[in-house]
Target: N-alpha-acetyltransferase 40
Amino acid sequence: MNLFKNYNLIMKSYITIREGEKRMEESDGVGNKREKKRKRNEILMKKKSIDEIIEAAVSDKDPLIHFPSLHYYINHGLSVSLKSEHGGVLSCQLKQYIKVLLKANMEVPFGCEWPAEEKVKHREMVAPEARYIFVYETSDCDSNRITNTSEGMVVGFVHYRFVIEEEVPVLYVYELQLEPHVQGKGLGKFLMQLLELIAQKNKMGAVVLTVQKANRSAMNFYTGKLRYTVSAISPSRVDQLLGLQSSYEILCKAFDPEAKTILEAKTPHHLLPPREPRRGTGQSGFHDKFYGLQQCKE
Ligand SMILES: CC(C)(COP(=O)(O)OP(=O)(O)OC[C@H]1O[C@@H](n2cnc3c(N)ncnc32)[C@H](O)[C@@H]1OP(=O)(O)O)[C@@H](O)C(=O)NCCC(=O)NCCS
Model:
């Protein structure tokens, strides 16, 4: 009888312990589920706010409007005015201009990759999300007399987009192309600074761009003067072997702490190329090539 009683007592306490454990497991499960749901909501909210930032930036018809004092650049005997355009509505002449300048500036740095790259660039050129700033050389150096209607000859352009990189909204510079005779006069730096202002005005976390390793001059321009760093998402930072195989680096300048952590992290200074003497200017013949074209070829 005693034996039976003891057995019952043991069984009762075993059941009580199991029930307690079960209740704890269940409450743990509910806690985990709540935590997972909270995290998922956080991610969704963040994604939504990033999408809204990009949407707002993309819907801004003319980002230049917010910087009226920067519509002109007059320095080193150069006088230019700027104008915004969109990839989807580029005129036939501007499309042809882009093609010719791209080939003139980029065929050498791209080397044997150029034919394939050229096709990609021609496709990217007319994408609706492509944003442009075209640079027009004005004959008049007096800033007071330059008006919006005094467009001269186009001498360069910037192609940029508002995109998401590693969950950070960024202004991605697809192209910055200047004709040889306007290079080395501070215009490239001015345009990059303008892009940085446009990026910050539109709540982008960073400006990002890709440079061919063979384009030493451009690499020095970005990393030397403009203080851009090799991004943590660049092939050479992602994987050493990948870095050796790839012909380009991704550079960035981040504006907020989160973007800095994700896109910049620590800068491997040993990867930055040594400074080179500045590239010479004054190569001629570009305008002859472009304006000599009789017809607009698509
Ligand atoms: C690269 C490019 C955009 C630079 O623009 P740019 O107008 O010629 O350069 P800037 O005159 O604004 O130079 C700004 C500063 O960088 C310096 N710099 C320019 N090129 C340099 C170089 N190769 N090495 C070191 N410093 C350089 C200048 O001395 C200047 O310094 P400062 O402010 O003390 O005077 C222009 O040369 C270009 O269109 N090149 C051909 C196309 C190309 O390679 N585009 C980049 C593709 S990613």
Notes: The first strand starts at residue 72 and ends at 75.
